[in-house]
Amino acid sequence: MYRYIYTSRSVFPMGDISDLDILREADTRNRAEHITGVLLRDPTSFLQVLEGERTRLMRLTKDIIKDPRHYAFRILQRGTVAQRLFPDWSMGYVAVGATTMTAFHDLCQTSGPMMEEALKALAPSLTTAQDRRP
Ligand SMILES: Cc1cc2nc3c(=O)[nH]c(=O)nc-3n(C[C@H](O)[C@H](O)[C@H](O)COP(=O)(O)O)c2cc1C
Fold this sequence. Notes:
About 35% of the residues lie in helices and about 30% in strands. The protein is an alpha+beta fold. It is globular, with a radius of gyration of 13 Å. It binds flavin mononucleotide.
């Protein structure tokens, strides 16, 4: 199992319809490729945790990097892990404030139980593309 965490700056503001487009695309493809994870969103940035089979993740992140809806892509961590943090989420979404985002940004540059527990604690706040379908 492989995990890949990055941050980027969004071209669109938080709450823009493009977030929903991203979630819908992610939901479809991630289900098909057994990729799971979470997308944190604050007013200006994204932080995404992706987990799954390594070659699939490498292919996906290559596509995500090229996506014009964001820029300033920066890897926070990547590597082999024992298990998924978000096994039930094809792509969970949570909007947070800038302070919370900074905290996760810092945490995700470390690895280990503190960072994993903090991410897992997001689970009750997550929504999916389906929850948001009009
Ligand atoms: C911040 C961000 C996160 C994204 N996350 C995912 C994702 O988890 N899975 C996914 O398939 N696409 C994701 N996308 C969209 C991809 O960049 C790409 O548009 C999508 O995979 C389209 O795939 P296709 O070539 O199969 O149509 C994301 C895009 C952005 C801007």
